[in-house]
Design goal:
alpha/beta, about 40% helix, Rossmann fold, Gfo/Idh/MocA-like_OxRdtase_N, NAD(P)-bd_dom_sf, nucleotide binding, Gfo/Idh/MocA_Oxidoreductase, 5 helices, Gfo/Idh/MocA family oxidoreductase, about 20% strand
Length: about 110
């Protein structure tokens, strides 16, 4: 399964660990801070894997890759918008809690 991670902060390491443990093909990582991407890849001994694309723009990542699953591990206020963009791109999502900051966005994601 082609997998990508959006947001490379503290909780993201759990997502990469799960992806590795479940034999997902890590296609790309995305964070607005490039150093965070490299740090998480280094932590999981993936920094030298040049087949893993690095992005600072998640929309570009969604457009340029044939992804099947993304984990959204950004700051909470951005979860819903990113999830909806991923869903619109035909990608399945795993969203860190909270799914959204309001009920309307949560209901839109669930649709």
């Amino acid at each position: 399964m082609k997998y990508a991670l959006i947001g490379c902060g503290r909780i993201a390491t759990n997502h990469v660990t799960a992806a590795v443990n479940n034999n997902l093909e890590i296609v790309a990582v995305c964070d607005v801070v490039p150093e965070k991407m490299e740090a998480i890849l280094e932590k999981h001994n993936l920094a030298d894997d040049k087949s893993i694309k690095r992005y600072t723009d998640y929309k570009k990542m969604l457009e340029e890759n044939d992804l099947e699953l993304v984990s959204i591990a950004t700051e909470s206020g951005k979860h819903a918008a990113i999830a909806l963009d991923a869903i619109d791109a035909g990608v399945n999502v795993i969203i860190e809690k909270p799914m959204s900051m309001n009920m309307a966005d949560a209901e839109e994601i669930i649709k």
